[in-house]
UniProtKB/TrEMBL annotation:
Keywords: Oxidoreductase
InterPro entries reported in the protein's UniProt record: NAD(P)-bd_dom_sf (IPR036291), Sc_DH/Rdtase_CS (IPR020904), SDR_fam (IPR002347)
SUPFAM superfamilies xref list: NAD(P)-binding Rossmann-fold domains
Family designation: Belongs to the short-chain dehydrogenases/reductases (SDR) family.
PANTHER family according to UniProt: DEHYDROGENASE/REDUCTASE SDR FAMILY MEMBER 7B, DEHYDROGENASE_REDUCTASE SDR FAMILY MEMBER 7B
Organism of origin: Virgibacillus siamensis
Protein name according to UniProt: SDR family oxidoreductase
Highest taxon above the source species: Bacteria
Length: 264
């Protein structure tokens, strides 16, 4: 794996914490060059110093609020201008808020779509000509198991992840002739600060704590798949099996798993 990643420059959005931060560490550990994008430049600079101290790897930090289209365009263009070649893009930034449809705030819905879908699509579109020019690249989109099985209180969030999966699958077909790999990451609950905004009460996190994925495990799987033909990473495995059964027997699974679905 190290030979495949060594020296490759890889953009990671939402790199200041959670899964994005752990992916940056894993890339550096394998000799790659993390190009980290997030709102918090102080966190990124601190991470940059830690990576340098631990692995003697140069990484790069760029500040941008991906909710702002102009900032997103500018940071992608700046990265392309400052680096001869970018080899990969990991669209990791995302947010969620769990509410019943009757209770959801429209500002939350708009924010989720802007960050989870529009920023992901726009950043990819900005970088795609660069990958095509070099006839090389890997685009990794962090989606969710929620994009395969929607549950109560996750209508808007699940809709964004359905959109990410649709975009990813179409993009894979469009880029097949350009040696550009496209991978979707479909995750169940991960033990990160995601739930601070998604579930401020903490009830859902408490209910599913024993099932939560560790961000290091996720990061290792993602980095292991870089520059391979891996179509999807689905974690945990039992949840992916559940999603396949759900597509075959949706009504039966909704009845059988009602209590689990209602844990939010």
């Amino acid at each position: 794996m190290q030979n495949r990643i060594a020296g490759k420059k890889i953009i990671i959005t939402g790199a200041s914490s959670g899964i994005g931060e752990r992916i940056a560490w894993q890339i550096a550990e394998n000799g790659g060059v993390p190009i980290m994008v997030a709102r918090s430049i102080n966190k990124l600079k601190n991470l940059q110093m830690q990576i340098k101290k631990t692995y003697q790897i140069n990484s790069y930090a760029y500040q941008a609020d991906l909710l702002n289209q102009k900032e997103l365009d500018n940071v992608i263009n700046q990265i392309i201008a400052e680096h001869t070649q970018i080899h990969g893009l990991i669209n990791n930034a995302g947010a969620g808020v769990f509410d019943y449809v009757r209770d959801m705030q429209w500002s939350d819905v708009e924010r989720m779509f802007q960050l989870n879908v529009f920023a992901l699509m726009r950043g990819t579109k900005c970088l795609l000509p660069h990958f095509m020019q070099y006839n090389e690249g890997h685009i990794v989109n962090v989606a969710s198991q929620a994009g395969k099985i929607a549950t109560p209180k996750a209508a808007a969030y699940a809709a964004t992840k359905h959109a990410v999966l649709g975009f990813t699958n179409s993009l894979r077909l469009e880029t097949a002739d350009f040696n550009i790999h496209v991978t979707a990451i479909n995750l169940g609950p991960v033990n990160t600060n995601f739930f601070a905004s998604a579930d401020p009460s903490g009830d859902y996190q408490k209910n599913i704590e024993r099932f939560m994925l560790h961000p290091d495990k996720v990061a290792m799987k993602v980095v292991k798949a870089l520059f391979t033909d891996k179509r999807e990473i689905n974690l945990p495995g039992w949840m992916e099996l559940g999603s396949k059964l759900y597509h075959l027997f949706p009504q039966a699974l909704e009845r059988l798993l009602k209590k689990q679905f209602d844990k939010k």
